[in-house]
Amino acid sequence: MRAGLLGSVIMNFDFSDDQKLLKEQVRKFLADKCSTKVVRRVLDGNETHADDVWKGLVDLGVPGLGIPEEYGGSGLSPLEVCVVAEEIGRAAAPVPFDTSVVLATEALKLAGSEAQKKKFLTGLASGQAIGTLAIAEGPQPPRPRNIRTTFGGGRLNGKKVPVTDGEAATFAIALANTGGTGDRALSLVLVDLKQAAVAKKRVETIDPTRKHAELAFKDASAELLGGEGEGWRLLEQLYDAAAVYFAFAQVGGAEAAMWMARDYALQRQAFGRAIGSYQAIKHKLADCYVKLELARSNAYYGAMMLTEGGADLAVAAAAARIAATEAYDFAAKENIQTHGGIGFTWEADTQFHYRRSRLLALSIGGPMAWKDKLVTRLEQKNAA
Amino acid sequence: MDFNDTPEEAAFRKEVRTWLEANATRKSDDKQSFRARNDDPELLKKAKEWQDKKAKAGYARITWPKEFGGRGASPILQVIYQQEEANFLVPLGFFDIGLGMCIPTMMAYAKPEQLARYVKPALHGQEVWCQLFSEPAAGSDVAGIRTKAERDGDSWVINGQKVWTSGAHYCDYGIVITRTDPNVPKHAGLTMFFLDMKTPGVEVRPIKQMSGGANFNEVFFTDVRLPDSQRLGKVGEGWKAALTTLMNERLAVGLPSGGLDIDELMELARDTDLEDGPAIRNQQVRGKIAEWYVQQQGLKLTRYRTLTALSKGQTPGPESSIIKIVAAPKMQDMGAFAMELMGHAGIMKEDVPHAAGFQAQWIGGAGFRIAGGTDEILRNIVAERVLGLPADIRVDKDIPFNQLGKK
Asked: Does B66 touch chain A (CB under 8 A)?
């Protein structure tokens, strides 16, 4: 560590009392209405999401928190959305938060025309619309060269799979080829999912608490979101914002998994003592805490940069994403390990975080891709 | 959220900066460091002069009460002073243990006339203090010390050996923990004293470390006679006094400064040719750089969270307990990795850019993982104090110290 590490400022590097109050309110609501029984109901059941929980969140104004007032939202900063994301993650809530409140909302704020914002953001804020992102096309990470879905003449054709909340969503933002070369061949398009030209088919995934679908578009009516050929660039920008919100959800999940493991370690006896008194368990859980705090600190900085529109967002978002993915993956798997055999049963709640941590780790690009991005950005920053 | 000082903090920062500009030389870059080796006698002399200057200006211990030469100010102002001082080329590090741990213990237990005698010279750097706790057979389990103090009329006779005593070779005074009653369980039989390091029977032998430096010492006590007036706290309550010292250690511990970090690692990776081109283009190398950057950044930001709490007058959360657990292995691993990038030449101490710096981290990291609480003890502390898990099994808890290890 270098001498100047502490910088030359003190700062206010924490959330405000109002933001903490909001967090507490959402936490209480979810503890009450979104217990693990509800998560299990969605796991075992057929519903697309826990609509009762979602409606409650809509009543609390959650979808509109970060949407400007002129479109029916509360016009609050990203910090408010971050504290809520942490609670959604803690509860492993089976609701379209990551898709609708984060990805679709941010995409529209980022690239939407006035008319699109008016129509779609207003719908999102009121809870009448649910949006999602449709990027992947099967078994490979999406890259400009492997996107086959096309858009032209107002018509979208192709298949997107997996799409999180593909069934529950009323509209999607899809990445499509609009002609041209390399990155410039891609554009984002807004497509209404209620039309007959869209076929939805549920696909099984490792996290059935969040339902996924294959969406097939056959001459579906759609419109550009942002400029033609801007799709890949916009997606990267969208993912930077999303990385910060996802990091908070992952921090919440990691913390929940850590305390679940700790509670079990206090209660479970082996060799005449609570297993939590053995260093093999204590040190494992201490490591959960270390990773959690590294993630939390990086996530805070990401939130701050997102709020300020700071130049450091690209680096901060990637760091938050990497740290939070690591923290959640580790806590989720060591939670099962701490529980032993019972933790591997269908009846145990340990599986929720194990499943969710992997879903969140992969859905906007995995750690390997983000580490590569981070170093690229550090290189750019150093060169500047 | 913002990274701004409050008006009071900003005013103090400005005052400190003005004073430092007038009294010290600003570093040309943040890698510059005054210290070479702190067993250099000239360095100690310069450090004492700087300490005296600071004390006269009221910056030596900002949080101490005014009667002891402090300002009775909040810890955040102390942090601001340190932040600003870090930008100047000044000799530091000799007084941290004395002022951070020994003197606060004195303040808790010594008599008013003793405080009147010892606090001021310590604050002004005229007398340096050390802490004599660890022993060859008592490291992490420091309550297991064997150095004994036996009562003889109005004085005590001390025999035994201490080890890892930082700075004992240049220190004037020390606080020492001893065993005064071996017939009771280990924590109950301890008593603390302070002493002049020139007392007859005290012998200091420097320990040459693996790094080549010699900051630590063995200290031998042979029939060292101390008056009872130099006892700190009650007989048998030395553990309580030691906890006072160690609690202050937590506030005193910072991060090591001035070493190489991510920037240098990236520079090295740019300049290193691997089979498939520059190392910086290799995905494995990029993955490592990213992980260490996230750790480095995470530690810095975690510190910011602690400072925020201090700035608001709140008690900081336990988050700072992660710092050494992360920083020490990172230092060691990153040093080793950087050496690997240099190939066979990574072992050479000459003619290889950055080699010495990364080697120093690799070597120093091995010590840093142990000093001031091992990785393992720190994980125990997080598990017990933060997560509320049970203490380790203590088979020696209820057994008289002199019966331990016996059937």
From this structure: no
A233-383 CATH choice from 1.20.140.10, 3.30.450.40, 1.10.1240.10, 3.40.30.10:
1.20.140.10
Structure tokens at B129: 């203090």
Distance CA A110, CA A240 (A): 12
> Looking at the domain that runs over A13-97+118-126, which CATH code has it been given?
1.10.540.10
Q: Cβ separation of B86 and A290 shorter than 8 Å?
A: no
B:348-377 residues touching chain A, CB 8 A cutoff = 376
Whether A59 has a pLDDT exceeding 90, the answer reads yes
Query: A365 vs chain B: nearest CA distance in angstroms?
Result: 15
Q: Which of residues 315-344 of B touch A (CB under 8 A)?
A: 319, 322, 325-327
ipTM summary value: 0.94
| 3-state secondary structure (DSSP) of residue B352 | coil
Which domains, ranges and CATH numbers included, belong to chain B? 7-94 (1.10.540), 129-251 (2.40.110.10), 255-371 (1.20.140.10)
Contacting residues for A143 by C-beta, under 8 A, at least 6 apart: none
Question: Which of A290, A330, A334 to mutate: most B Cβ within 10 Å?
Answer: A290
Q: For residue A162, is the peptide bond before it cis, meaning its omega torsion is within 30 degrees of 0?
A: yes
Domain boundaries along the sequence of chain A: 13-97+118-126, 132-228, 233-383
Which single residue is written with the structure tokens 């211990």? B61
Active site residue ranges of B: 249
Q: How far apart are CA A20 and CA A333, in angstroms?
A: 29
Q: Do A9 and B3 touch (CB under 8 A)?
A: yes
Contact B130, B168 (CB under 8 A): yes
Instruction: Read off the pTM.
Output: 0.93
Contact A4 B293 (CB under 8 A): no
- Angle among Cα A320, A321, A326 to the nearest 5 degrees reads 100
- Residue range A71-111, pLDDT digits in tens: 999 999 999 999 999 999 999 999 999 999 999 999 999 99
* Nearest-by-CA chain A residue for B295: A294
| B383 inside 8 A of chain A by CB | yes
**Residue-level pLDDT at B29:** 75
The pair of structure tokens assigned to A348 is: 């145990």
